[in-house]
Amino acid sequence: MRKLEGKVAIITGGGKGIGYGLATAFAREGANLVLTGRQESALIEAKEKLEKEFGVAVLPVQADGEKEEDVKNVIQKTAEKFGRIDTLINNAQASKSGLTLIEHTKEDFDLAIYSGLYAAFYYMRECYPYLKETKGSVINFATGAGLFGKPGQSSYAAAKEGIRGLSRVAATEWGPDNIRVNVVCPLAMTPGLEKWKSEYPELFEKTIQGIPLGRFAEPATDIGPVCVFLASDDAHYLTGETITLQGGSGLRP
């Protein structure tokens, strides 16, 4: 029997990049999925591939996480289709990565905060009653940019560190409800990273040199299985933690 057979997971930004890799890992373990994102075509394509390959049910819902009404619609449609929520993964994030702090405008800063921190808050709040019922879990995505102060990542790092703080408080408040809340900081190859590589090749090479395993993670095979573990009963006593999946570059005491 697959680890997440019959479970239901919401994955924001699930149509491409890390989100699609996570969706693949969860579908492989039998989870039914709700994939959200701004591009409906990417979500539909993901649905068709995942249902065909893994035999799970996938609900694509076009949504902008910074809009409270969109998030409420996602949760309503999830409840109508599946009647439960076992795992929430807040993966989606937009930002002006590459701009220095002094180059940021308020609009640039707002982009990161609203698409990341506000979206995580909205999804967590709206999912809470369902997660309490299933004794479920939340997996929020943060970044080494915030942990280690990476240059050109000020608004992105600020949003993600806000998410880490939110996650720790939620882990404390929701522990009595047996809801687990953990954070993953990945260093994965994505379309956004490919773009960053082409724009900042020297910084990219320097980053690679600082990774003991010598590569960026593959979302479906390096990041996804760890998130499957966090969502499974195997991690029933793990909450409030930040896990750095960065090939050894996130070494911490």
Automatic annotation (TrEMBL):
SUPFAM superfamilies given in the database record: NAD(P)-binding Rossmann-fold domains
Residue span, Ketoreductase domain: 7-177
Superkingdom of origin: Archaea
InterPro entries assigned to the protein according to its UniProt record, in alphabetical order: KR_dom, NAD(P)-bd_dom_sf, SDR_fam
GO MF: oxidoreductase activity, acting on the CH-OH group of donors, NAD or NADP as acceptor
Pfam family, one: adh_short_C2
Assigned protein family: Belongs to the short-chain dehydrogenases/reductases (SDR) family.
Protein name (record): NAD(P)-dependent dehydrogenase (Short-subunit alcohol dehydrogenase family)
